[in-house]
Amino acid sequence: MGETLQILVPTIHFKPKVSGSLFRIYRDVRFSKDKTPMKSKIGLLFWQGQAHRMQSSSFYMHYDKDSYFVAAGIRAFKPPLLKTYRAYIKHKKHRESLHQILEDLKKKGYKLPEPKYKRVPPEFEKDIEHNYLTKQGAMFAYIEYKIDDIFFTEGIMDRLFKVYKDMYELQKWVYKMSST
């Protein structure tokens, strides 16, 4: 999939190894209430940029025995990136373009994360246009599928590529924001 994604993003990073494009299947239980040693899903990540892979705009997928989840963007902003995101969306044109991208994705059946924060941050006017964007702690779109016959064939590549192509404008927007 990493090689195929180079059609959309020639500089995409994909490293077919653990802590590269593959997530570990074991869980660090030292500080967790869940002491289950193994994860119940397999995760894959293809990212763009020089930042840490989890703070870079990416194409992501994980699957378990019942379903698979396909997404693009950044799944959680750490504080420095949250600050960058908020500074970026202070500009009306950036907010407008992000809002339009998200509306287009919703029309295609993709889902968006719920806002992480309940209030508009103090650096924004409460009645700012598209103020829901100020309450986000991540920026990504996703879709979930049940495991079906396509999952076990080469047809999965076509399905994933179509989803990633649909989400490409969001991936580009997040990449540009995170690169500022």
For this entry, give a set of tags:
single chain, 180 residues, alpha+beta, BirA Bifunctional Protein, domain 2, 5 helices, 30% helix
- Please report the first level of CATH classification, the CATH class: Alpha Beta
Overall 3D geometry? globular
Helices, by number, come to 5
Largest sheet: 4 strands, antiparallel
Can you walk through the features of this model?
With 180 residues, this protein is of the alpha+beta class. The protein has a single domain (2-178), classed as BirA Bifunctional Protein, domain 2 (2-Layer Sandwich), CATH 3.30.930. Helix content is 30%, strand content 17%. It contains five helices and four strands, in the order αβββααβαα. It has helices at residues 2-5, 79-89, 92-107, 155-166, 168-178; strands at 42-48, 57-63, 67-74, 139-146. Strands 1-2-3-4 form a four-stranded antiparallel beta sheet. The chain is globular, with a radius of gyration of 17 Å.
In short:
This protein has 180 residues and is of the alpha+beta class. It is built from 5 helices and 4 strands, in the order αβββααβαα.
Helix and strand topology:
Elements: H1 2-5, E1 42-48, E2 57-63, E3 67-74, H2 79-89, H3 92-107, E4 139-146, H4 155-166, H5 168-178
Antiparallel strand pairs: 1-2, 2-3, 3-4
